[in-house]
Automatic annotation (TrEMBL):
Coiled-coil region: none
Key words, A-Z: ATP-binding, Coenzyme A biosynthesis, Cytoplasm, Kinase, Nucleotide-binding, Transferase
Keyword match ATP-binding: yes
Name used for this protein in its record: pantothenate kinase
Family recorded in the similarity comment: Belongs to the type II pantothenate kinase family.
One annotated GO biological process: coenzyme A biosynthetic process
InterPro entries xrefs: ATPase_NBD, Type_II_PanK
Xref: Pfam families: Fumble (PF03630)
Root EC class: transferase
Subcellular location: Cytoplasm
Origin species: Schizosaccharomyces osmophilus
Pathway listed: Cofactor biosynthesis; coenzyme A biosynthesis; CoA from (R)-pantothenate: step 1/5
Catalytic activity from the UniProt record: (R)-pantothenate + ATP = (R)-4'-phosphopantothenate + ADP + H(+)
Length: 403
């Protein structure tokens, strides 16, 4: 393990591995649930631009939504007639016992109209069969309160609100315990993913660092026992907002793409910029290539914004925010005596550089004693938790029990 302090200018990650990992994590896969188990369905994911609505053999029976400050995440449950292991033409007779598919879609919260429209369509398709029980919508996140009246009126169904932190923890604990292949670690040297069935003996306590618009840090001591031990307003919304001011990128993914090509040393002040090239402050583990001050070089360069490369700015800001969150996470874990840290929230977007920075920070500061874990459905913990609360109460949704 490299002993350099986090915040190094470059990380030696092979392009090939980055591509490999990011291809594998491109979009959150659908899940299949039935009474005896749950699994990830490895197939093309969906984005709001190419949503495939269920066909008429299937029924959307449950919808959950998590409306945050930046993104609204929808999950819909389709009681399907085909099992994942059968060919698409094979139809099972006893449909109600077969289980069903959970699909995940996200929208920008600013496009809440489109989001409500999608739910409306799913509900209307379901309602065509008058004998069916009406769909109930489970809503969480701040928007469950902000848009409650609108959703109730426009959807014309019961909307049940659930606390966002409770939902996050329910979703996390279920995904970790019940979905094989959901949780992974990143090798801090090579960035290869490591999937293991059992990462650690002690299930509790663990910590969730949820990086959404802002950051919430939760200590979890039991399946539904947790406390919010910290937070930070420097989160995903900060990166998204500042990069939309400072670069021409029009989407979050474009910003992440830019950051891959940048050299943050063009804007960050490195230890070597202060001590002299090839001279560091080794006595305290500060190499010449360590970032001494994020964006610290900008002022003395005396250049206009358009004279800096957007790629360099994107990389610098992503590193600054990820390092800061990694360090706060470590400090909270140390203070609360927690070894295993799960990182969630859409900020991560399964982006290798971000996961690497977080992993590196945790490993370095804890002297290798703490672990950083990531999840394939990182941005969907809350919406999944909201669904589980309802599914549990409803006997007709086959959800395998938590192990
Ligand atoms: N397609 C995207 N568009 C915009 N932001 C994205 C996208 N994908 C990932 N992000 C990042 O994810 C962040 C939002 O994460 P998430 O959905 O977990 O939080 P939220 O629920 O909106 O926020 P909060 O919980 O703080 O209310 C954004 O601020 C941005 O940094
Ligand atoms: C306000 C919430 C909880 C909304 O999800 C989130 O954005 C957050 O945790 N923000 C950080 C607030 C703080 O602790 O400084």
């Amino acid at each position: 393990m490299d002993t350099n302090k986090p915040g190094l200018r470059h990380s030696q990650i092979s392009e090939e591995i980055i591509e490999q990992v990011e291809r594998q994590l491109a979009e959150p896969p659908s899940l299949w649930l039935n009474l005896t188990g749950a699994q990830i369905l490895e197939e093309e994911g969906q984005d709001s631009k190419d949503i495939v609505l269920p066909n008429n053999r299937s029924q959307v029976t449950h919808i959950a939504i998590d409306i945050g400050g930046s993104l609204a995440k929808i999950l819909y449950y389709v009681r399907d007639t085909t099992s994942p292991s059968s060919s698409s033409s094979e139809v099972h007779e006893n449909v109600s016992d077969r289980g069903g598919r959970l699909s995940f879609v996200k929208f920008e919260t600013s496009k809440i109209d489109d989001c409500i429209q999608l739910m409306k369509q799913l509900i209307q398709d379901h309602a065509r069969e008058s004998r069916r029980k009406p769909v109930t919508v489970m809503a969480t996140g701040g928007g469950a309160y902000k848009f409650y009246d609108r959703m109730s009126e426009e959807l014309n169904v019961e909307v049940i609100r659930e606390d966002e932190m409770e939902c996050l923890i329910k979703g996390l604990n279920y995904l970790v315990s019940c979905i094989p292949g959901e949780v992974f670690m990143l090798n801090p040297e090579t960035c290869e993913m490591a999937f293991e069935e059992q990462f650690h003996d002690e299930k509790y306590p663990h910590m969730l660092v949820n990086i959404g618009s802002g950051v919430s840090i939760l200590k979890v001591t039991g399946p539904s026992k947790f406390e919010r031990i910290g937070g930070s307003s420097l989160g995903g919304g900060t990166l998204w907002g500042l990069l939309s001011l400072l670069t021409h990128a029009s989407s979050y993914d474009e910003m992440l793409e830019l950051s891959k090509k940048g050299d943050n040393a063009a804007v960050d002040m490195l230890v070597g910029d202060i001590y002299g090239e090839n001279v560091g402050y080794e006595r305290f583990g500060l190499k010449d290539s360590t970032i001494a001050s994020s964006f610290g070089k900008v002022f003395r360069e005396n250049k206009r914004l358009d004279e800096f490369l957007p790629e360099d700015i994107a990389r610098s800001l992503l590193l600054a925010i990820s390092n800061n969150i990694g360090q706060i996470a470590y400090l909270h874990a140390q203070k609360h005596n927690v070894k295993n840290i799960y990182f969630g929230g859409s900020f991560i977007r399964n982006h290798v550089q971000t996961m690497h920075t977080l992993t590196y920070a945790i490993k370095f500061w804890s002297n290798q004693t703490m672990n950083a874990y990531f999840l394939r459905h990182e941005g969907y913990l809350g919406v999944f938790g909201a669904f589980l609360k309802y599914a549990r109460a409803e006997s007709n949704v086959p959800v395998p029990p938590i192990s």
